[in-house]
Amino acid sequence: MSDATITEPDAKTLQSAPEISIVIPVYNEAQNLPLLFERLCAVVDRMGRPCEVVFTDDGSKDNSLEILKGFVTKRPDIIRVVEFDRNYGQHMAVMAGFETARGEIIVTLDADLQNPPEEIPKLVAEIDAGHDVVGSYRRNRQDSVFRTLPSRIVNLVRERITGIKMRDQGCMLRAYRRSIVRIIVESGETSTFIPAMAQFYAERPSEVEVEHAARHAGVSNYNLYKLIRLNFDLMTGFSLVPLQLFTMVGMVVSGASLLLVVYMLLRRLFIGPEAEGIFTLFTILFFLLGVVITGLGIVGEYVGRIYQQIRARARFRIRAIHEKR
């Protein structure tokens, strides 16, 4: 079970602890895992530095977990598998990997092979150069316009609202120093957008360009609702601007409504009551109701986040960790 702490290795463990931990969340990626494992092992062996690969199975419904257990048997020197008792979402799977990882440099990577594992040394080199957080942005992104265009718009809105600068917030290939990961884990937030939190706490952030490929197999686990939900969590988790914007909209609408009331009063005094215009009034009423409902939704979102936080429930539960000791 998550206890919002990150374990520091003792002196004896440090002698054999890896320098680099690669954290990979997995959910129904059975078709991609064999090729990912092959390419990852080649990258790790070429780097020539002590490494570990921490897979988190996020309650997969296919045979992903069995494949991951097989990796532990094939490469017990580098592979560790964290098993969830059910699905908790990609960011919680990464958080579990953070709590389990032992390296000083921690790299996150998706399992769908859209971000090539061969790019990992590029990010590690940036950390070695003195940066504490290294993000990445995709060259020639291999996604449809229905994914790329909204992503650009969201990037722009997010930067304006939160002040957090990330060229490509959707790219999971990122590297962090252990000190940053420790802060993220100890924050204990229930709604966590890891790249944004890392940028928020970073002292010397950096970004590098990486290759991007079409998904090797399967379909994306992010549908339109999840993407909207994720970005709304990001904006409400790092800024009060949505509430402030709604307050300003409410003030403008209230002012306009007051002017309309004055106009209708003067019209009644000087021209007389009107029988027409009923549909115009209905239109104005429906608009004002829409504004009120939107405002209630925004306020409810913040109240819901507070409720989730004060419940202090475990963010996820680890059923087992599969590794060769």
Description:
- The structure is a single chain.
- By secondary structure, this protein is of the alpha/beta class.
- It is built from eleven helices and eight strands.
- The chain is elongated.
Secondary structure tally, helices: 11
Helix content: 40-55%
Mean model confidence by pLDDT: 80
Looking across the biggest beta sheet, what order are the strands in?
7-5-6-4-1-2-3-8
Q: What is the number of strand segments?
A: 8
Give the DSSP E fraction (strand runs of 2 or more residues).
5-15%
CATH architectural category of the largest domain: Alpha-Beta Complex
The biggest beta sheet reads:
8 strands, mixed
* Gap from first CA to last CA: 21 Å
The CATH class of the largest domain, by name, is Alpha Beta
| Global geometry | elongated
**Uncertain segments:** 1-15
- Briefly note the structural class of the backbone: alpha/beta
Number of domains: 2
Write down the Rg: 25 Å
List keywords for this structure.
8 strands, elongated, 51% helix, single chain, alpha/beta, 8-stranded mixed beta sheet, Spore Coat Polysaccharide Biosynthesis Protein SpsA, Chain A, 11 helices, 325 residues
Topology:
Elements: H1 11-14, E1 20-26, H2 33-47, E2 51-57, H3 64-74, E3 79-84, H4 90-100, E4 105-108, H5 120-128, E5 133-139, H6 145-162, E6 174-177, H7 178-187, H8 194-201, E7 205-211, H9 224-238, H10 241-270, H11 278-311, E8 318-322
Helix pairs in contact: 6-9, 7-8, 10-11
